[in-house]
Design goal:
The chain is mainly α. It is built from 13 helices and 2 strands. It is globular and about 65 Å long.
Length: about 325
């Protein structure tokens, strides 16, 4: 039964999505599929950001509150560097910058706080958040910057022969989703098939045991923060191309918090499944549940996407605090 939790919840979200269109009269299959695809594509991007949280917490036990600031910092770096060089070169330089940032964070922040209380490490990442927000704007600027991926932003109509009126999708969203899926697959292979990936999993299971067999803990932390930085860069480029690189990008990144709560703080798989559930759920709620609430309670309407994920995470905490794929902690006395 425990293993069926993710499937059960995802099916429940989709079932609600099937019922709500009927209740609101928006039962056209093409429109439903369009909303579903939009939710899945947004969910993949949420999953990508949530993986940064999960990777760092799994390997070091640190809840990295700075992940959103890392997304903004990386996006600012790429946007401003792309003004002076080709985009591919700006991305490569951005990766180098994020790896260098990982070295600095490990040496200056994490290493002095080894074996300290978890709240001390959390507060340290909070300090990193404000530092990156301010330092990034000092170095790169505080205006709204563009990242041009060379993809047409005009939506296109597909599957017109299958659905009446077709399905409207955005090419940029599709490309961003494919890149995110590819990165998730590469990371999965990295953790499962490489010696470094297996070492990181060993560190995640037991820090002291990993050190006792010669795995260098500090080096593993640098690697996992570097990977999280690269994930943040990819997410920042994708979101920056959609919204423009601005402070709101870091706020979008915070949408990954309910994703990791839902999926489990220590689970990369949970980050993926949780992101899909949140993405689909909030799109369905905004489009189909919103009109029902407006009509029933005479509300102004709108804004459900802003709070749906957090309410769902709060309700889920009451039922399964450790998340879908998280490990249940049992204290024996």
């Amino acid at each position: 039964m425990k293993k069926n939790w993710p499937v059960f919840l995802l099916c429940a979200v989709l079932l609600v999505g099937l019922v709500l269109p009927l209740a609101t009269g928006a039962s056209a299959p093409g429109f439903y599929v369009e909303v579903l695809l939009g939710g899945l594509m947004t969910g993949v991007l949420y999953s990508l950001i949530a993986m940064g949280f999960a990777l760092i917490f799994k390997a070091s036990g640190v809840f990295n509150f700075a992940q959103g600031a890392m997304v903004l910092f990386a996006a600012l770096a790429v946007a401003r560097l792309a003004e002076r060089m080709p985009l591919w070169a700006a991305i490569l330089v951005g990766i180098v910058i994020m790896i260098a940032l990982a070295f600095v964070i490990e040496r200056v922040v994490l290493r002095p706080l080894v074996n300290q209380e978890g709240i001390a490490l959390f507060m340290a990442t909070l300090g990193v958040t404000f530092f990156l927000d301010g330092f990034g704007q000092t170095v790169w600027g505080s205006d709204i910057y563009k990242i041009d991926l060379g993809i047409a932003k005009e939506p296109v109509m597909i599957l017109q022969g299958l659905f009446q009126g077709g399905i409207l999708i955005n090419k940029e969203d599709v490309v961003g989703t494919l890149v995110a899926v590819a990165l998730v697959a590469v990371l999965a292979l990295f953790f499962q098939k490489t010696a470094t990936g297996r070492a990181l999993r060993a560190v995640a299971d037991d820090h002291q045991a990993a050190q006792s067999i010669g795995i260098p803990l500090n080096r593993m932390w640098v690697i996992v923060w570097s990977v999280a930085g690269i994930v943040a860069l990819v997410a920042g480029v994708i979101w920056g191309s959609r919204l423009g690189v601005q402070f709101s990008v870091s706020l979008v990144a915070l949408k990954a918090l309910p994703v990791v709560i839902l999926g489990g703080l220590t689970s990369v798989t949970g980050a993926i499944v949780g992101g899909l559930i949140i993405g689909v759920g909030e799109k369905m709620a905004e489009v189909f549940l919103g009109p029902v609430l407006v009509k029933t309670f005479d509300l102004a309407g709108g804004g459900i996407e802003n709070w749906f994920a957090y309410v769902l995470a709060l309700l889920f905490l009451l039922v399964r605090p450790q998340g879908l794929f998280g490990e249940k902690h049992i204290d024996r006395v």
